[in-house]
Amino acid sequence: MKEIYAGNEENIEVWGVSHAGHVVLPKHMQKPYKSIKRWFSTEGEVEHKMRFLEKFIPKETPLVLIGHSIGSYMALQITDKLKDHNIVHTYLLFPAIERLARGINAPMLEALATYLRQPFMALVYSVHMVPAMLLKRVFQLAVRMHYGAGKETFVQNILSLTSPSVMRAIIDTTQDIFKKVRRRDDDAIARNLDKLTFYYGLNDHWAPREFPMQLRRMFPRSDVRFCLEGFRHAFVVDAGREMGHIVKGWMLKQNILPSKHGHLTAVSQLLREPSSSLPVTTTKTTYPMVQRSATTIDITGLSSSTLQPDSSSSSPVESLGYLENTNRTL
């Protein structure tokens, strides 16, 4: 996010959109789980993000979507369905848009979401009882050991995983996604082909190499690209800045970034809760309010849904609001 924003501070706006229910909300924003459960599904997650765009992004604003992993599936669906908005391009990074059950991690995740759900949730409840300060210190040490210094921004997001409500939402969403995301939506791709860029990893455990090859055979004119830098599927862990630099380069070459006197809004991760019945927490980069010429939105993926980008790509300002509260803006 920060890489795309850098150098265009007066011209662009960056928003971040993640998955519904994947973080602990302040108590005054919390809702009973049963009243919000419908959002923790494939369709609910797509609608969650569409509601956000309809509420906060003017229809005439040129809009760029950036989806990662399962977020690519959602970005594709939004591109196809949100016809009233001016979506000029959609980037699908390490897209998980078909046959998710074939992923290397799929059997383990499906097991946790089904017959291992009760014992796993019992473990989560047990960990949740550990004092937060102790858990934080343990996670800080683990993050430093695995990822080195400068990755402490992950700690708070990892702590969210110890929340039973967050883990329940993640499991419900994951279970439904495995059921629904099976066949590639060729109809949606065909209708929006000129707006789509697909960026596949060479060793992606969610998308074997045959997937982009089949996509290219089906759509010879498709913009299918391959990651030659060796980034992992969850690139936000250690290559967020580099990936941002690549996407920014594409936007410049395709004349999507605005001129010096234009304005681009870049949305990179819708955080937290959906719709009229749910509060939403969002991150936004601050900038002088001038006439917009475009917006970029990045929707996170399954493997990193509970991780914010690292400190090199996170947005500096966090604000709280309600999607249906017209008196409060983000």
Commentary on this structure:
- With 330 residues, the chain is α/β, with parallel strands linked by helices.
- The protein has a domain at 2-106 and 184-208 and 224-274: Alpha/Beta hydrolase fold, catalytic domain (Rossmann fold).
- It has 12 helices and 9 strands.
- Strands 1, 2, 3, 4, 5, 6, 7, 8 and 9 form a 9-stranded mixed sheet that branches.
- Strand 4 (196-201), helix 11 and strand 5 form a beta-alpha-beta unit.
- Helix 3 (42-56) crosses helix 4, helix 5 crosses helix 9 (164-180) and helix 6 runs antiparallel to helix 9.
Task: Sum this structure up briefly.
The protein has 330 residues and is an alpha/beta fold. The chain is 38% helix and 15% strand. The protein is built from 12 helices and 9 strands.
How many strand segments? 9
Query: What's the CATH architecture of the domain at 2-106 and 184-208 and 224-274?
Result: 3-Layer(aba) Sandwich
CATH topology of the domain at 2-106 and 184-208 and 224-274: Rossmann fold
Order of helices and strands: HEHHEHEHHHHHHEHEHEEEE
Question: Could you tell me the strand content as a percent range?
Answer: 15-25%
Helix content: 25-40%
The CATH class of the domain at 2-106 and 184-208 and 224-274 is identified as Alpha Beta
Please name the fourth-level CATH homologous superfamily of the domain at 2-106 and 184-208 and 224-274. Answer: Alpha/Beta hydrolase fold, catalytic domain
Characterize the main sheet. Answer: 9 strands, mixed
Number of helical segments with 4 or more residues: 12
Low-pLDDT runs of 5+ residues are 268-293, 302-330
**Integer average pLDDT:** 76
Q: What is the approximate shape?
A: globular
Cα(first) to Cα(last) distance is 17 Å
Which radius of gyration do the C-alpha atoms yield? 19 Å
Q: What structural category do the secondary elements indicate?
A: alpha/beta
